[in-house]
């Protein structure tokens, strides 16, 4: 096991700055997820940790050792890729025991090790099959097993579930998280899927355009997003962003938003006495309630027209047009709501998030 730190790490490809000045500490035994849209630098960061890319500036440490220039084979890291890269003509057993680290062992030690890993990843009884005779999930397990058999001190996974169908993905998500818990090995998991990130990580690093915008637990990311990007990226659907005007009125902040006017206790939301006059309000779809089902603490309203509605039986999603702004709401039950009907969405101002509009 090992801790990791990135210190002032940059990666520049020709003139393109893929990673500007990354600082990040990963704790020993932690399961950290890198999440963000495609092209935001997750793989590049992972490859720098693996030693497959060299940082243009800055340094990377594993425990107290500077590994910035250490070749990949000497970092004691195992990586699982999206394409499993199994050897098609070899059995599962041979695929598992093919690596240079394990080939040095005696035959009986190696057999023991293969059996142990096969049990760990659920491949028991399949060791003599070829990859073509396995399901997608089983092939994924071989790829995991092949990385684990080396007993690396750090385990890296880059979108390992992208090739699986939705049901299997959910299952493997739980399996990988469970495996990590049992082994306690420091793990970095890359995904563009926020649900995967939220359900798997001890902590999540949210990437956007080469930068980490927030590193936090899933609960903190959900409750206290550092900015609008994190708020809208996390959650399905993500946070609604509504334009608003703000004025201070004694101890209150007075807010005008989409035709409604209401107040919030200024101290609770704003540390500075100079309030920005324009803000963006964030509100989660599940913090908007349908009038008759609203908890009594919810006293403020947004009015609009229902544009779309969808129910799964246990949840109802509604898209409401409010003065041309699309607002998503999610209700925790079946709601009989029709397209075109007037919507009265009720909320508690304490559930609002305030973001300063980006300059420019
Ligand atoms: P992600 O894994 O988050 O989708 P990547 O780390 O693969 O993103 O890529 C980040 C950015 O760096 C992208 O704009 C990508 O095109 C660019 N990039 C990655 N590798 C190279 C490379 N070898 N040469 C040039 N540009 C690259
Ligand atoms: Mg990638």
TrEMBL record:
Gene3D superfamilies: 2.40.50.100, Nucleic acid-binding proteins (2.40.50.140), P-loop containing nucleotide triphosphate hydrolases (3.40.50.300). One of its GO terms (molecular function) is ATP hydrolysis activity. Keywords: ATP-binding, Cell membrane, Membrane, Nucleotide-binding, Translocase, Transport. Signal peptide: none annotated. It comes from the Bacteria. It is a peripheral membrane protein. PROSITE patterns: ABC_TRANSPORTER_1, ABC_TRANSPORTER_2. SMART domains: AAA (SM00382). It is found in: Cell inner membrane. InterPro entries: AAA+_ATPase, ABC_transporter-like_ATP-bd, ABC_transporter-like_CS, ABC_transpr_MalK-like, ABC_transpr_MalK/UgpC-like, Mo/tungstate-bd_C_term_dom, NA-bd_OB-fold, P-loop_NTPase. Residues 4-234 form the ABC transporter domain. GO terms for cellular component: ATP-binding cassette (ABC) transporter complex, substrate-binding subunit-containing. GO terms for biological process: carbohydrate transport. It holds the Pfam family TOBE_2. The keyword ATP-binding applies. Belongs to the ABC transporter superfamily. This is ABC transporter ATP-binding protein. The lineage of its organism: Bacteria, Pseudomonadati, Pseudomonadota, Alphaproteobacteria, Hyphomicrobiales.
């Amino acid at each position: 096991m090992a801790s990791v730190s990135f210190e002032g790490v940059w990666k520049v490809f020709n003139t393109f700055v893929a990673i500007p000045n990354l600082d990040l500490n990963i704790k020993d035994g932690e399961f950290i997820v890198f999440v963000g849209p495609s092209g935001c630098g997750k793989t590049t960061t992972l490859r720098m940790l693996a030693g497959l890319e060299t940082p243009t500036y800055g340094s990377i440490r594993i425990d107290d050792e500077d590994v910035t220039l250490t070749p990949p084979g000497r970092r004691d890291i195992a990586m699982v890729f999206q394409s499993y890269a199994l050897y098609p003509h070899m059995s599962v057993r041979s695929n598992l025991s093919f690596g240079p680290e394990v080939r040095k062992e005696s035959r009986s030690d190696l057999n023991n090790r293969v059996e142990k890993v096969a049990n760990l990843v659920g491949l028991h009884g399949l060791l003599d099959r070829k990859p073509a005779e396995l399901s997608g999930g089983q092939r994924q397990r071989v790829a995991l097993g092949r990385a684990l058999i080396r007993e690396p001190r750090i385990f890296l996974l880059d979108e390992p579930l992208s090739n699986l169908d939705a049901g299997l993905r959910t299952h493997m998500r739980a399996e990988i998280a469970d495996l990590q818990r049992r082994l306690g090995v420091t793990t970095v998991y890359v995904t563009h899927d926020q649900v995967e990130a939220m359900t798997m990580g001890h902590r999540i690093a949210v990437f956007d355009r080469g930068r980490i915008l927030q590193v936090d637990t899933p609960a903190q990311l959900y409750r206290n997003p550092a900015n609008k990007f994190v708020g809208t990226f996390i959650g399905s659907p993500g946070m609604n962003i509504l334009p608003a005007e703000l004025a201070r009125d004694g101890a209150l902040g007075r807010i005008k938003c989409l035709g409604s006017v209401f107040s919030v206790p200024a101290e609770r939301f704003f540390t500075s006495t100079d309030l920005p006059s324009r803000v963006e309000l964030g509100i989660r779809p599940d913090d908007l309630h349908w009038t008759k089902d609203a908890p009594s603490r919810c006293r403020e309203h947004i009015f609009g027209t229902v544009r779309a509605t969808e129910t799964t039986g246990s949840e109802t999603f509604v898209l409401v047009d409010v003065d041309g702004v699309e607002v998503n709401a999610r209700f925790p039950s079946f709601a009989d709501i029709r397209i075109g009907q007037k919507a009265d969405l009720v909320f508690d101002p304490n559930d609002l998030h305030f973001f300063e509009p980006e300059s420019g």
